[in-house]
Write a structure and sequence with these properties.
heterodimer; A: Four Helix Bundle (Hemerythrin (Met), subunit A); Helix Hairpins; 6 domains; six-stranded mixed β-sheet; 36 strands; 42% helix; globular; B: OB fold (Dihydrolipoamide Acetyltransferase, E2P); five-stranded mixed β-sheet
């Protein structure tokens, strides 16, 4: 059954029972205002809920009852037994309808016009006390002839309810006696009973009715009973206490287990094992009682959206998906407000006004999609609107105005980074403060709330297409599985959820720690992972450990991956998270503390806090390389390796182009034919130097950057590796020499960004020619590539590479420029486009291309750093012929190759 | 001291019971009613990056207790005697348990409220803040600690700043 309906039924059954009892009390003492208010409130609530759930029959009836009660409350009418009976009857009728709802989940056919008419009549004061009423046309003989009996019954209250002669057994709680039902039925179908005078016939009729009712009654009570037995309402405090006690039990069990482990074989081992499993089951059971479907936090949203839509004069449709996804009620409570706030935001700011939507050729009604699903111990909630997207320039201006960022910083930021500024404090871009939102206490509060419970929030906004917020939160806060590690003789717990894997490093093995300046990185399956010492983060004196045999806990926080170096790793334990004392709560790297099996207290490390301490920004470039991690955050920030070589200016190269960092022994360098070669991985690797050939120092170790392409390596000799920085590259073109792409400001210093291609050709003169030979294109005329990318760096990086690979490249900075070329009648063999671009996005561009009369047959390649899922969602997979990861030079060339070949064959 | 006599002499409304503790040879008093228990702080876990007053956290019968070093809190030198067995006064504050680490626990005194004087104004403001008053005992001064303020670490930093 629909959760909402189920809850409504349970709640309403309870309310009605209270109303029954209260009414009886009220009748005995008509001057008791408190009781009357109570009744009024209950009926009012029922009415309100009915309206909300779309139950018109119930609502109409409850409304009529409420009106009458309202008159009593306002002292416009004095209650008399007849009218009270009428109300009681209407309540019985409500119960009948509810019973039907319980079995069929829909209201029964028909209406209660007669009863409502009576109630209306009564509330208009037309229903006089019995006796006088008999003078009127007797449409409702039963109501008039039986009131005394009913009042008596009602006055007897419980005793009346407890035994039912028709059923010949005591009534179960919540059950209604057949007599009551019959009465309700008869009053509902009043006209049938006009022949009441003819007693015989009436008896027959009543008999029939009774049968019918008996059938209904046998259905109905079971429903009510089953509802009652299926759910009981328990005070939340009781559950909380239970949880605390179970937590203590888990702790004690852990302690016992630890002791027994030390004692070896004892006879308490078996019972302890049993205790252990029972504890685990109990823990699970209690956890379950705390689980609630997220839908319960969404219940109010349709109404809020409706009201918001009205208030701002927009048409908005709310779609909800995954309401039944369960999570801990503590977590639920904590995200309820942020969620409401965000949905309001979407209504208010996310979706554009109707006229603008029509102008943008969008459906008139704005869409808000709310989606919840489980993902590996987390619950993910997405709030997506199809509005205009975030106003990049406005956010930028506002952020500069209030000093969140400087103008220089702003200019260096990508669109996505600017969008994420909405999470900074005091940044509401709404021009007007509306009744709903826009008071400047917005997304920063949301972000804080979510981070407080160990969650993350991120957004993707595409101009003209909408904004999607993604919230990721843990399922529960109370008991988590944690990895126990040691750093500087202290143990710490790292929540398992953010641990991807454990790596044991060794100097000669697969996983090597490489040191760059004072930064350590770990090469792990073709990705460079930033490393940080747990002891360093925690600012505790660390033991002198060599990188030879360190343990690295590979963690993921949001999209950011990094390795945390620890001295030792113990096992995983289920730990009970205890909140930090206030004195300690300001330490960002801890989220709580816990008592281990051996009784020691240890601190629980907060992965979010560590991620901040790692301080590689919000962006995790490395994750772009890994297949399993979608890396929608990374598209524009580039990890650059900084080094000194051949001159004073620092130089940089995109880290993704560097295959390895090596140190070579200068004595092993051989000079052959004016070239320097070194034995490397079973072959000879040519060394090149910036600024030309120079003899290398003797008995020296020389750092070398190794670039590998198609199985051939070249080593670029450098003086010193300085650092790895992750910054937005803004390369100024205007290279003084062919070996340099341009200059960029990195770490506040002007840095030359070297052209790797230049050094590759320096070492192997045939490097690119060779590449062309492999492709077999050398005899063909040059093929033309149109490169569309808003990022100057990528244009400058990719264009020369493609040119070097033998293509004729035209690079433009936007789709608009591309269309200008189209107008001139230019023809290309391949179009390579970025996906995320301002104004016209790659996807929109590609879709238009597909329909273009000149260019529709040209293969379309996309450059993207996004994950597969995002690409699919955006429709990029369909729009483009193929998609290549950004900064993956080799696969770009091979894909272009492949596309050209298959396209040629097809054509 | 005439403690025993005092106990008989005064009725409850006029007196307070204090546990005397020693911190760096100075005698302090803590109201009995605010003390949850007295224990020996064992197997303390250091908390990196915490304020210097926080000595660590420990497990006291299944509860996590945050141990505050009274000497650091009062700006007194660290305990030099390594073998010294420190004691801790357990205090419940809100829902949290704290342990105030002191050198030695003395006795329980019942003292008349009217005998309590305010601290002389030339005493360190840091001490002024955390004390509720002073008693002159036979030959010794007893400073009454405001335990809530003692444990309010954030405030102290604000004061010092």
């Amino acid at each position: 059954m629909d959760d909402l309906l189920e809850e409504f039924l349970t709640e309403t059954s309870e309310s009605l029972e209270t109303v029954d009892a209260e009414l009886v009390k009220f009748e005995q003492n008509p001057n008791d205002e408190e009781t009357l208010n109570n009744i009024f409130r209950l009926v009012h609530t029922i009415k309100g809920t009915c309206g909300f759930l779309g139950l018109p029959r119930l609502e109409a009836l409850a409304h009529a009852g409420e009106t009458l009660l309202g008159k009593y409350r306002d002292k416009a009418l004095v209650p008399n037994p007849d009218t009270v009976t009428l109300i009681l009857e209407s309540i019985d009728q409500l119960k009948v309808i509810l019973g039907h709802l319980g079995t069929t989940q829909s209201e029964p056919e028909g209406d209660d016009a007669d009863m409502i008419a009576q109630l209306v009549a009564a509330s208009e004061g037309k229903m006089e006390p019995s006796g006088e009423a008999s003078a009127e046309v007797t449409e409702e003989p039963v109501a008039e002839t039986e009131p005394v009996a009913e009042v008596e019954e009602a006055a007897n209250g419980d005793s009346n309810q407890s035994y039912d002669e028709d059923l010949d057994r005591p009534l179960r709680p919540g059950e209604v006696s057949l007599a009551d039902l019959e009465r309700a039925f008869m009053s509902a179908d009043g006209p049938d009973l006009e022949q009441l005078a003819e007693e015989a016939e009436n008896a027959k009729l009543a008999e029939e009715k009774k049968k019918e009712e008996a059938e209904q009654a046998t259905n109905k009570p079971t429903v009510e009973v089953s509802l009652v037995s299926q759910s009981i309402r328990v005070n939340v405090d009781v559950l909380e206490d239970l949880m605390t006690m179970v937590s203590e039990l888990v702790l004690t069990r852990n302690q016992l287990l630890q002791m027994v482990r030390q004692m070896g074989d004892t006879e308490i081992k078996v019972p302890l094992q049993r205790l252990s499993s029972v504890t685990a089951e109990l823990q699970e059971g209690v956890m379950k009682t705390r689980m609630q479907p997220i839908g319960s936090a969404w219940k109010k949203l349709p109404r809020i959206v409706r009201d918001s839509a009205k208030a701002v004069g927009k048409k908005i449709e709310l779609h909800m998906e995954g309401e039944s996804t369960e999570l801990d009620r503590q977590v639920l409570e904590l995200i309820r407000d942020p969620l409401t706030h965000m949905v309001r935001n979407s209504c208010d700011h996310g979706l554009e006004p109707t006229d603008m939507r029509i102008a943008a050729e969008k459906p008139e009604a704005g869409q808000i999609h709310l989606r919840a699903f489980h993902e590996g111990g987390h619950i993910v909630i997405e709030i997506a609107d199809d509005g205009a997207g975030l106003p990049t320039s406005k956010i930028k201006r506002k952020a500069i105005e209030n000093g969140t960022i400087t103008e220089e910083e702003a200019n260096g930021m990508t669109e996505n980074q600017i969008h994420r500024l909405v999470f900074a404090a005091g940044l509401s871009t709404a021009k007007e403060v509306t009744a709903i939102s826009g008071r400047g206490v917005g997304m920063d509060v949301v972000r804080n709330n979510i981070e407080q419970i160990g969650g993350t929030i991120d957004l993707v906004s595409i101009g003209g297409e909408g904004t999607t917020f993604t919230i990721k939160i843990p399922l529960t806060l109370a008991i988590v599985s944690a990895l126990i590690v040691e750093a500087a003789d202290s143990r710490f717990a790292i929540p398992q959820l953010s641990v991807l894997e454990l790596v044991r490093t060794s100097q000669d093995g697969e996983h090597r720690v490489e040191e760059i300046h004072n930064t350590r990185v770990l090469r792990l399956r073709d990705t460079l992972l930033p490393l940080i010492d747990l002891a360093d983060i925690l600012d505790i004196p660390k033991k002198e450990i060599t990188s030879e045999n360190a343990f690295v806990v590979v963690m993921i926080v949001g999209e950011q991956r990094f390795g945390v170096v620890v001295d030792n790793v113990f096992d995983t334990e289920e730990i009970v998270v205890k909140p930090l004392a206030q004195v300690l709560s300001s330490i960002p790297v801890f989220s709580g503390n816990t008592i281990l099996g051996d009784g020691t207290v240890i601190m629980i490390v907060d992965p979010n806090g560590i991620a901040k301490a790692v301080n590689i920004g919000d962006e995790g470039e490395r994750s772009a390389d890994s297949e399993e991690v979608s890396a929608k955050r990374v598209e524009e920030k580039t990890a650059m390796l900084l080094f000194n070589a051949g001159g004073k200016e620092p130089k940089g190269v995109p880290l993704s182009l560097v295959t390895r960092l090596e140190e070579i022994d200068t004595t092993s360098v051989e000079n052959v034919d004016g070239e320097q070669l070194v034995q490397y991985r079973g072959g000879l690797m040519p060394l090149v130097q910036i600024g030309g050939y120079a003899p290398l120092g003797e008995n020296d170790r020389q750092p070398v950057l190794v670039f590998t392409d198609r199985g051939r390596s070249v080593g670029l000799v450098v003086d010193e590796i300085v650092d790895i920085v992750e910054e937005v590259l803004d390369v100024e073109k205007g290279a003084a020499s062919p070996s340099v792409i341009g200059a960029a400001v990195l770490k506040g210093k002007a840095t030359e960004v070297i052209d790797v291609g230049h050094y590759l050709t320096m070492a192997y003169h045939d490097w690119f020619e060779n590449a062309q030979k492999e492709k077999g294109v050398e005899t063909l005329p040059k093929q033309r590539i149109l490169l569309v990318d808003d990022n100057a760096f990528f244009r400058n990086m990719v264009a020369p590479l493609l040119a070097a690979a033998g293509y004729e490249v035209t690079a433009v900075g936007s789709a608009a420029e591309a269309w200008k070329l189209n107008e001139t009648g230019a023809i290309f063999d391949v179009i390579v486009s970025d996906i995320e671009m301002p104004d016209e996005t790659g996807v929109a561009f590609a879709s238009k291309l597909a329909k273009d009369e000149h260019w529709s047959s040209i293969p379309r390649l996309a450059l993207s750093a996004m994950g597969q899922n995002d690409l699919e969602r955006m429709g990029a997979v369909d729009a483009f012929t193929d998609i290549v990861r950004k900064a993956d030079r080799e696969s770009l060339i091979s894909t272009i190759d492949y596309v050209l070949q298959t396209h040629g064959e097809a054509a | 001291m005439s403690t025993a006599d005092d106990k008989q002499l005064h009725i409850d409304e006029d007196t307070n019971e204090y546990v005397t503790v020693e911190i760096a040879d100075q005698l302090f008093g803590i109201e009995v009613t605010s003390i949850h228990d007295v224990f020996q702080p064992l197997s303390l876990t250091r908390v990196p990056m915490a304020s210097p007053e926080v000595r660590g956290v420990l497990n006291l019968r299944g509860r996590i207790v945050t141990a505050i070093d009274a000497r650091v809190r009062l700006g007194l030198p660290k305990q030099e005697n390594e073998d010294h067995h420190e004691m801790a006064i357990g205090v419940e504050l809100g829902n949290e348990s704290y342990g105030l680490i002191i050198d030695k626990v003395g006795e329980v005194l019942r003292l008349a409220k009217r005998d309590r004087k305010t601290l002389p104004s030339n005493i360190d403001p840091q001490w002024q803040d955390i004390s509720k008053g002073i008693y002159r005992l036979d030959g010794r001064l007893l400073i009454i600690l405001d335990i809530q303020k003692m444990l309010n670490i954030g405030d102290m930093e604000a004061c010092a700043a």
